[in-house]
Amino acid sequence: MSQSNTEHTRWFSEEVRPHERSLRSYLRGAFPAVRDVDDVVQESYLRIWKARMAHPIDSSRAFLFTVARHLALDWVRRERVAPIEAVGDLAALSVVQEGPGVAEAASLHEKIELLAEAVARLPARCREIVILRKLQGVPQREVAARLGLSEKTVEVQVARGVRRCEDYLRKRGVGSFHDHERA
Questions:
Q1: 133-168 per-position pLDDT tens digit
Q2: What residue spans of the chain are helical by DSSP H?
Q3: Residue 146 domain-assigned?
């Protein structure tokens, strides 16, 4: 195992895995509709591992919970679009899902993954501020107080981070998260 992999493994064991119990508890409480919390936890681990391979993560716990929250929200949205129902006669099922939405759902999922990549590539302080403000919905005044910054600094960092994320997405062909907004 290379030095880099050993370091990543140590980081994961010390900085990420200790939060598993609280992450599972959070997911069960905040997203009772998510049937398979194990899948969300494992996918969260995979994504945080990949993000860490690309760049340092300042707050492993915050990043892990943010990733898990977004995965759970995606799962809940997908469930609303295509709920899983028990069926007695599999032969009676239609093989092809009818109606619009399948391609759009796949496209939205891909866009969300690109957005997660864009946020992960922000400079550490900017990423922390954007996650608190835009993803966790913490008020600007509270973000400033938590981080010991002025509200103006938080405002500037949010604007800078959003702009960088938009640029990142645009370079990858994402003009909008909603098809009807494309011109």
A1: 988 888 999 999 999 999 999 999 999 999 998 888
A2: 3-11, 20-30, 37-54, 60-81, 102-120, 124-130, 140-147, 151-171
A3: yes
